[in-house]
C-alpha cells in the first residue's frame, strides 16, 4: 500500500477564496531570522484503534486516508476556531507540489457526514491538477500553498498495510516538543472517539479531558504575613469593615490630595453621613456618589454601604449629559458629593436630596449603623458601556464583593502594613479590587493621580511606599515610558513587591520592561477580571514567558471555574469564548433583563465575550473579542453607545464606529451620513460627543460620507469604508513662528503624524490623556516651559501652546 498522504497546515500558505491557513498558536513568535527546524513526533495506535479504523472504513466506504484527513481538519478547527480551512495535501508518491485544499467544516454534522464532504473536496482538488478539465464551479486557486517552504505542522500516517501510528512533523523553531505531543494526542483522541461513535457530531468528539491546570499559587509570602480570614456564610462588607475599624483604629486607612484618615476617622465620618442617608433613602435604595479622585470617594462609598444602600459612582470629569443618563437609569434616591461639587450635584439632582460630605461631621467611634443587609443585598451598580446604545449597570452584592476582595488580597498578599496605590477611579471595577482588598485587611490606600508626568508619578509611588501596584498595561507603559533603555532597577520601585496588570492585553514587552525596571524579588501578575466577575484568571509571570507569543492570562482563581464555548454556546476544548462559572459572578444588569439573559444564562455563569486559547499546560491566553466591544487605553467601549450618541445629533442619519489600527495604539473612528442636505460639521459633532461621552469614547476621527457602503446582501461593508485621514481635516495654514514649528515637531513625534497646522487640536489629531502627559514633559524638557495640564486642556492647539510658551519666555526676559 502506498504511503498515506501528507496533510499539512502552514501559516505561510496563501489565501484561497478568502480562506486562510489554520493559525495554530505557536509557543514562540515567528521571526524571519529564525530558520525552519523540522522535528518529528510519533503517536502509536492501540490495536483496538487500528481495528476500529478498519471497521469504520469498511462500514462507510470512506478510505482511511480521508478519515485521517477529516480528523486533522477537526483538530485544527478545535485549536483555531476556524471552520474555513486551507490545507496543503501532498500526493501519495511525494515529490510533487502540494495541492491546495479548501475545507468548510460543519461542527454540528456527524463525523461520517464530514468525512464524505472532505472526500468530495479532495476529489475536486485533484481534478484541478488536470489541465484538460476546466475548474468549473470550483474555487479559484491563487497558487498552491506550497511555496518551497516547509509547513509549520504536517501530519502523516506511518507507512504500512494499516495505519498504526501518526507522525507530526513540526517547526521546532515555533513549537515545543510537548506542544507537538499534545496536538498529536488530540488527533489520536478524536480518531478514537470517531471510530467508536462515527455518527456523533464533530463538535462532540472530545480531544482531551478537562485539563488539570496547576493551581498552586507560587507568589512569595512576605515574612509575618497573615492571610485574611475567609468570609462567613452571610458576612457582609459592613461586617468585615466594622471588625477592621475596631482592630486597626489608629492605623492610616487612606491618604489623598486632601489629607489622611485613620481607620477610626474613616469609620466615624462614614457613620455620620450614613445616618443622614438612612433617613433620606431607607435600606436598599440607590445613592449616587459625585466625588473627585480623593478621600471623599472612599468616605462616600462606606457611608452608602453603612446606610444599607447601593452606591452608584459618578465621574465628575464626564459631561452632564452622560451623568444625567446614569442618574435616571439608576433612579437614585439621593446624591452624596464632595463639598466643591455641591452646585453641580444640585443641578443634576432633579429634586432628589443632595448630601455633602462634610469633614467636620463626626460620628462616635464604635457606634456605626447596623443596616439590615445580608450577603445577598446589592452593594453597587457600576455602569459600563452598553452595546444597545445605553449604558449597562452591573449589579453586585455584598457577599460577592467581599469574597473577591479577600481572594485578591490573599493572592497578592495585601495586609496590615501594606501601601496600595489607588490609581483607578472609583467608577471602575479595578478600584473595587484595590479599595476593598486594602481596607478589609488593614492596609493603607494611597490615592494617586495617574495623569501626571511619569517621573512625578514614580516619585509619588516611592514616597507612598507602594507595595502592590495595580494598573492597566497602558498606564504601566506610561509609568516606565521615559526610563532609559539601559538603566538599571528604578529606585522609585524599590518598595514594590507585586505589579498586577489587567483591563487590557499585556504583552511580553511589558514583562521585559518589568524585569528590567523593578526589583529582582518583585513579581508581575497578569490576569483577567471583567466587571461582571472582578477576579477570575491570574498568571504569575516568569522569565520563561519572554520566549512566548502572548503573555498568558493563567488559570482560574479560587472559587472560579471556566469553560470554553463555540459560537453556538456549545462546550469546546481548546479555543472558544470564555465562560466563567462561579457563585461570585454579578447579579446581572440593572433593568436590562434581555442583556442579562444573554450574558448570564444561569445565576452562576457569565459569558465574557473574550475569545481565548488553552495552552498545553492548561493555562489560558487571550486571542480577541467575540463581539465588537473594544478596549481603548484600558477602558471598555461599546460601539453601540457611541453610535447611538452620534445618531442623537440632528445632522446625523446613520453612524458607524470602527477602529483604526495603523498607529501605535488602536483609535476610534466614526463614520456618519447626513440627515439633511448638508454634511454634518465634524468639529461640531466632536464637541457634541464631548458633552455626552467619556473622553476615551470620543472618536479620534469623524468622517462624513454621503452614504455608507453596502455589500451584496445589503449589510454594511466595513472593508469598503475609506481610511480616515492621518492628520485630520486638511489645513493650508502654515506655522507662522519658530515656536509653532518647534511645537509641531514635538507633536509629530508623539502623535506619529507628518503635517500639522497652527489650529490643529491635539486630541482631534489622535492624542490621548497619556500622550498629553508625555507632550507636556517633552515641552518642559526641550523648551524649558512648564505648561499646567488644565491650562493646556482648555485650548489644546498648536497655536495656543506656542502662545503660552512665547508669553512665558517674554515674562522671564522682562
TrEMBL record:
Carrier domain segment(s): 734-809
Region (Disordered): 714-736
Lineage: Bacteria, Bacillati, Actinomycetota, Actinomycetes, Streptosporangiales
InterPro entries associated with the record: ACP-like_sf (IPR036736), AMP-bd_C (IPR025110), AMP-bd_C_sf (IPR045851), AMP-binding_CS (IPR020845), AMP-dep_synth/lig_dom (IPR000873), ANL_N_sf (IPR042099), PKS_PP-bd (IPR020806), PP-bd_ACP (IPR009081)
Matching Pfam families: AMP-binding, AMP-binding_C, PP-binding
The protein, known as: Carrier domain-containing protein
Gene3D superfamilies registered for this protein in UniProt: 3.30.300.30, ACP-like, N-terminal domain of ligase-like, Nonribosomal peptide synthetase, condensation domain
Annotated keywords: Phosphopantetheine, Phosphoprotein
Organism: Actinomadura meridiana
Amino acid at each position: 500500500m502506498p504511503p498515506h498522504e501528507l496533510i499539512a497546515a502552514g501559516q505561510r500558505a496563501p489565501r484561497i477564496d478568502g480562506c486562510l491557513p489554520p493559525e495554530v498558536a505557536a509557543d514562540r513568535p515567528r521571526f524571519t531570522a529564525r530558520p525552519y527546524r523540522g522535528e518529528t513526533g510519533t503517536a502509536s495506535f492501540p490495536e483496538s484503534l487500528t481495528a476500529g479504523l478498519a471497521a469504520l472504513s469498511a462500514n462507510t466506504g470512506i478510505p482511511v486516508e480521508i478519515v485521517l484527513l477529516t480528523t486533522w481538519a477537526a483538530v485544527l478547527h478545535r485549536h483555531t476556531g476556524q471552520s474555513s480551512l486551507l490545507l496543503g495535501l501532498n500526493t501519495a508518491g511525494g515529490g510533487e507540489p502540494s495541492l491546495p485544499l479548501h475545507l468548510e467544516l460543519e461542527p454540528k454534522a456527524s463525523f461520517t457526514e464530514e468525512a464524505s464532504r472532505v472526500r468530495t473536496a479532495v476529489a475536486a482538488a485533484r481534478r484541478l491538477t488536470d489541465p484538460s478539465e476546466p475548474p468549473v464551479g470550483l474555487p479559484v486557486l491563487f497558487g498552491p500553498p506550497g511555496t518551497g517552504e516547509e509547513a509549520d505542522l504536517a501530519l502523516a500516517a506511518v507507512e504500512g498495510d494499516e495505519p498504526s501510528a501518526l507522525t507530526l512533523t513540526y517547526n521546532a523553531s515555533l513549537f515545543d516538543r510537548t506542544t507537538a505531543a499534545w496536538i498529536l494526542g488530540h488527533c489520536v483522541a478524536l480518531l478514537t472517539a470517531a471510530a467508536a461513535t462515527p455518527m456523533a457530531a464533530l463538535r462532540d468528539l472530545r480531544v482531551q479531558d478537562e485539563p488539570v491546570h496547576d493551581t498552586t499559587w507560587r507568589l512569595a509570602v512576605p515574612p509575618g504575613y497573615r492571610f485574611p480570614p475567609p468570609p462567613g456564610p452571610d458576612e457582609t462588607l459592613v461586617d468585615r469593615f466594622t471588625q477592621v475599624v475596631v482592630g486597626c483604629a489608629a492605623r492610616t486607612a487612606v491618604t489623598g490630595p486632601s489629607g489622611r484618615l485613620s481607620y477610626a476617622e474613616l469609620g466615624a465620618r462614614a457613620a455620620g453621613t450614613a445616618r443622614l442617608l438612612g433617613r433620606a433613602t431607607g435600606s436598599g435604595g440607590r445613592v449616587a456618589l459625585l466625588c473627585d479622585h480623593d478621600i471623599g470617594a472612599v468616605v462616600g462609598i462606606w457611608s452608602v454601604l453603612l446606610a444599607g444602600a447601593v452606591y452608584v459612582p459618578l465621574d465628575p470629569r464626564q459631561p452632564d449629559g452622560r451623568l444625567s443618563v446614569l442618574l435616571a437609569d439608576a433612579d437614585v434616591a439621593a446624591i452624596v458629593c464632595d463639598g466643591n461639587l455641591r452646585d453641580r450635584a444640585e443641578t443634576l439632582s432633579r429634586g432628589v436630596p443632595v448630601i455633602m460630605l462634610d469633614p467636620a461631621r463626626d460620628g462616635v467611634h464604635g457606634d456605626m449603623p447596623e443596616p439590615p443587609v445580608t450577603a445577598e443585598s446589592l452593594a453597587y451598580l457600576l455602569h459600563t458601556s452598553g452595546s444597545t446604545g445605553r449604558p449597562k449597570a452591573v449589579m453586585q452584592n455584598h457577599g460577592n464583593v467581599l469574597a473577591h476582595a479577600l481572594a485578591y488580597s490573599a493572592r497578592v498578599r495585601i495586609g496590615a502594613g501594606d501601601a496600595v496605590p489607588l490609581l483607578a477611579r472609583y467608577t471602575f471595577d479595578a478600584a473595587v479590587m484595590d479599595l476593598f482588598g486594602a481596607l478589609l485587611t488593614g492596609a493603607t490606600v494611597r490615592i494617586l493621580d495617574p495623569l501626571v508626568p511619569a517621573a512625578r508619578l514614580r516619585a509619588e509611588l516611592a514616597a507612598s511606599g507602594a507595595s502592590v501596584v495595580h494598573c492597566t498595561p497602558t498606564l504601566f507603559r506610561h509609568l516606565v515610558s521615559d526610563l532609559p533603555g539601559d538603566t538599571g532597577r528604578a529606585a522609585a520601585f524599590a518598595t514594590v513587591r507585586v505589579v498586577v496588570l489587567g483591563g487590557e492585553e499585556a504583552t511580553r514587552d511589558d514583562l521585559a520592561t518589568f524585569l528590567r525596571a523593578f526589583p529582582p524579588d518583585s513579581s508581575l501578575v497578569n490576569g483577567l477580571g471583567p466587571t461582571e466577575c472582578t477576579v477570575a484568571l491570574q498568571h504569575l509571570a516568569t522569565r520563561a514567558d519572554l520566549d512566548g507569543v502572548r503573555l498568558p492570562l493563567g488559570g482560574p482563581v479560587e472559587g472560579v471555574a471556566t469553560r470554553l464555548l463555540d459560537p453556538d454556546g456549545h462546550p469546546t476544548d481548546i479555543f472558544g469564548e470564555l465562560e466563567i462559572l462561579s457563585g461570585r459572578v454579578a447579579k446581572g444588569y440593572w433593568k436590562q433583563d434581555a442583556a442579562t439573559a444573554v450574558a448570564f444564562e444561569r445565576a452562576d455563569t457569565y459569558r465574557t465575550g473574550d475569545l481565548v486559547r488553552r495552552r498545553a499546560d492548561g493555562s489560558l491566553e487571550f486571542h480577541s473579542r467575540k463581539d465588537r466591544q473594544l478596549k481603548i487605553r484600558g477602558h471598555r467601549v461599546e460601539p453601540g453607545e457611541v453610535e447611538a450618541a452620534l445618531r442623537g445629533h440632528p445632522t446625523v442619519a446613520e453612524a458607524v464606529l470602527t477602529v483604526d489600527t495603523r498607529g501605535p495604539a488602536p483609535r476610534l473612528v466614526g463614520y456618519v451620513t447626513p440627515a439633511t442636505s448638508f454634511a454634518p460639521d465634524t468639529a461640531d459633532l466632536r464637541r457634541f460627543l464631548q458633552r455626552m461621552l467619556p473622553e476615551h469614547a470620543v472618536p479620534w476621527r469623524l468622517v462624513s460620507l454621503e452614504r455608507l457602503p453596502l455589500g451584496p446582501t445589503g449589510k454594511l461593508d466595513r472593508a469598503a469604508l475609506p481610511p480616515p485621514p492621518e492628520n485630520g481635516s486638511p489645513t493650508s495654514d502654515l506655522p507662522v513662528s519658530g515656536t509653532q514649528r518647534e511645537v509641531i515637531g514635538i507633536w509629530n513625534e508623539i502623535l506619529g503624524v507628518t503635517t500639522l497646522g497652527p489650529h490643529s487640536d491635539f486630541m482631534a489629531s489622535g492624542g490621548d490623556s497619556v500622550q498629553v502627559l508625555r507632550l507636556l514633559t517633552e515641552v518642559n524638557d526641550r523648551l524649558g516651559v512648564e505648561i499646567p495640564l488644565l491650562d493646556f486642556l482648555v485650548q489644546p492647539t498648536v497655536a495656543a501652546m506656542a502662545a503660552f510658551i512665547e508669553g512665558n519666555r517674554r515674562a522671564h526676559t522682562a
